[in-house]
Amino acid sequence: MILGLAPAAHGGNRTGRIFTGDRSGDFLFASLHRTGFANQPTSVSRDDGLRLHGVSITAVNRCAPPANKPTPEERDRCLPYLEREIAVLPTLRVIVALGAFAWDGALRALAALGHAVKPRPRFGHLREAPVGSFVLLGCFHPSQQNTFTGKLTEAMLDAVFERARELAIR
After folding, report:
1. Are 34 and 41 in contact (CB under 8 A)?
2. Per-residue buried b or exposed e for 61-88, using 16+ beta carbons within 10 Å of the residue's own CB
3. Strands 2-4, 57-59: parallel, antiparallel or unpaired by DSSP?
4. Is the peptide bond before 65 cis (omega within 30 degrees of 0)?
5. Which of 33, 88, 107, 169 is the most buried if burial means most Cβ atoms within 10 Å?
6. Do the beta carbons of residue 70 and residue 56 sit within 8 Å?
7. Whole-prediction pTM value?
8. Strands 134-139, 94-98: parallel, antiparallel or unpaired by DSSP?
9. What pLDDT is attached to residue 146?
C-alpha cells in the first residue's frame, strides 16, 4: 500500500484518482512503472488504462485540505476509512508512507487495529518500522518541493519500491 497525505486539489481531487493528473503523480507513476508495479509510466485520468500490480494507493485524508495542511480534526475524521482499507487487504504486508503525515496516519490507523508500537518510530526516508504483521516504510513525498530540489530523486524513489517488494515477499 502506498499512503499519501490527501488527494491534490488539481490532481486526484479533480480527476477522481489519487496522484492522477499532477506532477507528484507523474513522478510516482513513472517510478511504479520502472519498478514493475504499474503497466504505464503516466496517469492523466481515471480511464487512461493505468493498471497497478501488487499495490494500492490511498491517502490519510479523503479531501484536499486548504493549503495542503490538514487539521488534526480532519485527519481523525478520515482515519476510520484508512483503518477499513487496511483491514480488508488480507495480504497487505508493507505500507509505504509518503511523508511524515502519512507515516503518522499509518501508525494511528494500525494502532486502532491493535498494532500499537512503543516507542513510536520516527519518520525517515527508507526508514523501516515493524508494526505487528506489517512493515511501515518511509519515503519522502514526491512533491515538486522535494523532486525539484533533489531531496527525492528517481533513484531514491525506485529504491523505496524495490525495498517494498523485498519486504512483501519475505
Report:
1. yes
2. bbebbeeeebeeebbeebbeebbebbee
3. parallel
4. no
5. 107
6. no
7. 0.92
8. parallel
9. 95
> Residue 14 has what pLDDT?
53
Cα distances from 15 to residues 60, 74, 92, 110, 128, in angstroms, run: 18, 21, 26, 29, 32
Q: Which residues contact 71 (CB under 8 A, 6 or more apart)?
A: 65
Q: In 3-state terms, what secondary structure has residue 139?
A: strand
2-168 folds as Uracil-DNA Glycosylase, subunit E (3.40.470)
- What's the pLDDT at 92? 97
pLDDT in tens, 126-137: 999 999 999 999
How far are the Cα atoms of 16, 46, 51, 60, 81 from residue 88, in angstroms, in the given order? 21, 23, 20, 16, 11
| Residues facing residue 4 across a β-bridge | 59
pLDDT tens across 41-76, in order? Answer: 998 888 889 999 999 999 998 776 666 678 888 888
Model pLDDT, residue 74: 86
Contacts of 42 (CB under 8 A, 6+ apart): 26, 29, 30, 48, 50
Residue with cell 519475505: 170
Distance of alpha carbon 32 from alpha carbon 157, whole angstroms:
9
